[in-house]
Amino acid sequence: VQLVESGGGLVQAGGSLRLSCATSGSLIHIFKVTWYRQAPGKQREVVASITTTGRENYAGFLRGRFTVSRDNGKNTVFLQMNNLKPEDTAVYFCNAALGTRDFWGQGTQVTVSS
């Protein structure tokens, strides 16, 4: 399974971005998908996840600013990020997990300027 993230970029504080995590085949519906991020010099951390049944879970620090969703017909999981802050600057990765197997994308850079 190949995962490809896109949608990152440079945005001013308070702006929005929508990240996409697309799969190479029609398999996204069988995976729990989790978004992670890693800022320079910091450990990778969980941002949000969505199960195969659409249940969402978010890191506490987000305070409602991000929304994860999935469109199985498009084999894509999205991360809508609103009211972005400079501390959201990081490389964002998606991970697709099924049982003991998991797959990672290459990441997409998000930079938020103050």
Account of the protein in words:
- 0% of the residues lie in helices and 54% in strands.
- It contains no helices and eleven strands.
- The strands form two sheets. Strands 2, 4, 5, 6, 9, 10 and 11 form a seven-stranded mixed sheet that branches.
- Strand 4 and strand 5 form a beta hairpin.
- The mean pLDDT is 94.
Would you kindly provide a brief summary of this structure?
The protein has 114 residues and is mainly β. 0% of the residues lie in helices and 54% in strands. Strands 2, 4, 5, 6, 9, 10 and 11 form a 7-stranded mixed beta sheet that branches. A 4-stranded antiparallel beta sheet has the order 1-3-8-7, with no helix packed on it.
Write the layout of secondary structure elements.
Layout: E1 3-6, E2 9-12, E3 17-23, E4 32-38, E5 45-50, E6 56-58, E7 66-71, E8 76-81, E9 90-98, E10 101-104, E11 108-113
Parallel strand pairs: 2-11
Antiparallel strand pairs: 1-3, 3-8, 4-5, 4-9, 5-6, 7-8, 9-10, 9-11
Catalogue the unreliable spans: none
Task: Count the DSSP helices.
Answer: 0
DSSP strand tally: 11
* Class computed from helices, strands and strand pairing: mainly beta
Shape: globular
- The proportion of residues forming helix, as a percent range, comes to under 10%
Biggest sheet details:
7 strands, mixed
Proportion of beta-strand residues: over 45%
Distance between the termini: 37 Å
Following the backbone from N to C, one meets helices and strands in this order, namely EEEEEEEEEEE
Radius of gyration: 13 Å
Q: Could you tell me the mean pLDDT?
A: 94
